[in-house]
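Homework help thread (please don't just give me the answer)

Our assignment gives two proteins as sequence + structure token strings and asks us to describe the second one. The first is just a warm-up. Here they are:
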Amino acid sequence: MKMASDIPSVDEFRPLVLRALADGQERGRRELNEMVSTLAGLSQDQMQETLESGQLRYRNRIGWALSSFAKSGLVDRPKRGRYKITEDGKTIDRRSLHEYSETDMLEWYTWREYKEEVAQRRQIKDGHSATESEIEPAEDSVEAMRTHENAFNASIETDLRKRLQSSSPEFFERAVIELLWALGYGGTHGAKQHVGRSHDGGIDGVIRQDALGLTNVYIQAKRYADNNKVGDPDIRTFIGSLDAQGANLGVFITTSSFQDKARRTAEGYRHGKIVLIDGIRLTELMLDYGVAVQKAHQFTLYEIDDDFFEEELL
């Protein structure tokens, strides 16, 4: 059933989601959907409304509310599909709000940080600073769709970086090895190896670029928080590990970023080449090469086939 919806907006669902979680119990999506729809007093007709995709409209909006809360730190996700309110979430619940918008959520540092990173990524993709008014330029619907695509993927890349930061060191090491393999570093007859943490000697992975292992790329992966930038000592340790292996090709990947001195040290490496990949570039590459993500939507645009009408002109 598709209709003009009069069910609550995402902003109006947010306080109801927090109310459903206010007792501090961990709950799954199905239970939350039922509790929130009851709190909202939804009718059977409202609960049957669907989007063009076929998804129930009210569940879609509750899902967006939960997603924004997870990104702002108002709700925790202890495991997949499970949610629990945080102390900050309880603070908002006690206000008994009728609605709570994304603008209102800017009071939380984690949400501001998330929105700033998405904006930074969009600026990189669009080549300029995108504003809300640019989302749907009437003069060019193709560019509008491209802008929407960039905005959506910027958000996914940001979420992906946070997921990698919260993963285990071993998982992150394997993930970056898979990325470099997807980039084609292994060639046709190469091999990949996760060295592991116990005896890595400053090396987390190796990609052998030929069947005999004559050319190897050595990998260092640092799953750092945003406030922990890779410094000069990290790069010098990596250089020492490369020299110990008699290697001249290295890739240093982090979920955070690099200090300027660390970049200069890497650029000054005289025995070979060291490539630095920060968290922004890392997740851009993961989307470009389909690592840890999958295509969710695809749209087809049509144009008039002028050749088809040529016979009419003859």
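The one we have to describe:
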Amino acid sequence: MKRIWTRWLPAAAVPAVVAVGVLAAGAVAVTPPPPATPEQVLALVASHAARQFSGTVEERADLGLPSIPAQALAPATKSSALGGEATLLELLTTAHTARVYTDGPTKVRVQIMDQLAERDAIRNGNDVWTFDSKTNEVTHATLPAGAGPEASATAKAPVMSPDQLAQRFLAAAGPSTNVALGQSASVAGHGAYTLVLTPKTAGTLVGSVQIAVEAQTGLPLAVDVYAKGQQDPAFHTAFTKLDLGAPDASVFAFTPPAGATVKEQPVPAPATTPKATPGATPGTMPKASPAPKPSTGAKTPESAPGWDTVVVVPAAKIPAGFLDQPLVKQLATPVSGGRLLSSSLVNILITNDGRVLVGAVPASTLEAKAAQ
């Protein structure tokens, strides 16, 4: 996966992003050596090439919101337009335990352990599967030859690994973010550095983000998101078990169960991925690259979202009946211009004309955006 956030690192620490290399199985550093600077840890994360590992990830949210069962969001998740927002609701309200398996960019499996059920997202070569044991429904997609690791996103799941979540926050970081080192930690038996990201932007609800980084490999092991004014994390995801060896090949084999409903899904053409810079070794500090050119302020496809970004879903793309669901009406309180689902970290505004606005920003920001 391309790590676009490397563009804002200081010139002395901009790494050459490595797409090759294999982690040493069982590499553990209980007490990591102190790095010289936060930039060194950022470079270590940017250059990590975690191609083989398996483990258990636990995530939980403490936002003051009631738990939303996955089945209550089923009508929304069937819509590609609102699927992301529905997944966000589940992510922010429901604790999850997931087993994750990775063996290179084309073999990935995530098993979400629900109560008396499980959901699976699997990529095995060019085949991508999802399976919900409660509904006995299967989706299948065949990726085009040469599809990169980003194509695995076809199998969406309401669980984000620490690595995935860390990359999102690091993509939002930049000149508007203070980066520091916290105390070293031990996560799932692995020694880790701690990066602390503190937004300078006043218009966000995010107070800080702490990312535990495996000291030898650079793999993010845990992410804690703190809302402004709170001492306990509003959102937490971390490995509780981690094996840096190759999973058994049988983990990625999938055959639809008898009687399951199987739906074939088309996939978009794969995005073009730039070539990686060779010559670096996983677990070592990469050499510096030339400093990126100053931004002109113009928006480009490479522009990353900021801490105060607001996502707007037009009314035309909201699935029929979603806004009238009893669950949505129960959770959202009336405000000027619509209904608001409010929490310490994320606000969601449903306008009277049917749009949905989402952001880690105050409700007033969403209302102002909706009025534009």
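TA reply:
I won't write it for you, but here's a hint about the kind of observation we're looking for: The chain has a mean pLDDT of 74.
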